[in-house]
Amino acid sequence: MADFWRYVDTSQILSNKNSPQMKDEATTTNTPGSPIKPTEPYFILPPGFRTNTFFVGLEKEYTELDKRLFGRRRRDGTACVLLHGQPGGGKSHLARQHVHKNRKRFPEGVFWITANLRDEVLHAFWDIKQKVVARDSPDLRDGVNSNDYVQLVKTWFESRHDWLIVFDGITVERDEDTTDLASFIPDSKDSSIIYISKARNLESKQRLLRPFPIKVGPLQSRGSWQTRRDFLVCVPFS
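Above: the chain sequence. Below: its structure as tokens.
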């Protein structure tokens, strides 16, 4: 959408009254604000996130996604993959499945960011600052202004390895949008990023670390709709 990277008054995000707060429904395995090293990897998900109840018909795409996320490219920097295709084709479904099956392969954590609008990404980075960065340095939990906290979170990622970030819903239509989005993208070896988007035009973006494109087509084009329907019919009521 054209207004994806529109200007957002971050003062409204950062004020004590309006700052995103940790909610009970937010999924994380760690408690923010503690200097104690977490016993489990971070698992930061948006409210309402649910794991898949079934997974069929995307095995080929799953294998390719796994291959690209853990390929040789990770030795030198972040391995990026672009899942693209029309709405309803299964892009987020595929990413959720990989996250569910492989979260333990990312010791520094998994971070799923809803990214349809710029302010959603800003809120997500603020949330990561509060829940994650502040654990390592509790004094940073408050007092960081709107010009600092995005870079602070990005620096945290770049000082660590073995993490996964999912940017779900990216749309970039102008060159300025790419530049702005790139300001959120960390680069660190042995780490991975998944972009989920309707458009394929992100694959050539050097500033986005040139993600490898994987097309997730409509169910009918994969011949898997019948398989999924049969699966659903066979699931008994509880």
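The mean pLDDT is 79.
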